[in-house]
Amino acid sequence: MQVSEVMTHQVVTVEPGTAVRSAAEVMAERGFAALPVVDGGRLVGIVAEADLLRDRLSDDPRLHLRRDRDPGTGLPPTLVRDVMTQEVRAVDVTADTADVARVLVGARLRSLPVTDGGRLVGIVSRRDLLRLLTRPDEDLRLELLHLVEEYTGESGSWDVTVQDGAATVRRLRGEPEVSAATEEGALSALARTVAGVVGVRVLPAAGPGDPA
Prior knowledge:
Elements: H1 20-30, E1 34-39, E2 42-48, H2 49-53, E3 91-92, H3 97-106, E4 111-116, E5 119-125, H4 126-130, H5 137-152, E6 158-163, E7 166-171, H6 180-191, E8 199-203
Parallel strand pairs: 3-4, 7-8
Antiparallel strand pairs: 1-2, 4-5, 6-7
């Protein structure tokens, strides 16, 4: 499944010239940890909570007894372009959700911008991917059965079951037009395109004495 099928399309963004204070207000009010920065629709950076907090909260002199502590005399940056991270980790709109999940988990990220030719088209979060795992087994079964019958052109010839996201496919009647191994590989690949299927096994075709 491609990330375009699960991502959030309506993305809250800021521009390089947005005031840092305005970006902070959006994050605080909406509960975002980071905001993509776009310029003319193109992704040019990302600004996170840490970027906005850095050096912006002054020490209370009543709570710091060291007199030699330098409070600093300069003013902090006021625009997003001056605090944002320009090296943005993003994923392409055609990326496989499994690859995206590995990036999110491996890099300990909460979300990733989604781009198409450099233009921001969405954002995908861990929560978006977790929703795939909550699809009812019966919905997964019906979708996979439809795909199998459509792919093989054989209606009523398949037994498909799904339990806790794990799918089992078995031919009940008829013979494959290709080798059994080729058909097994094709059906396994087909099952993995169904969002929410976490594993698949293809059993040997039912024999004359096997229950249908």
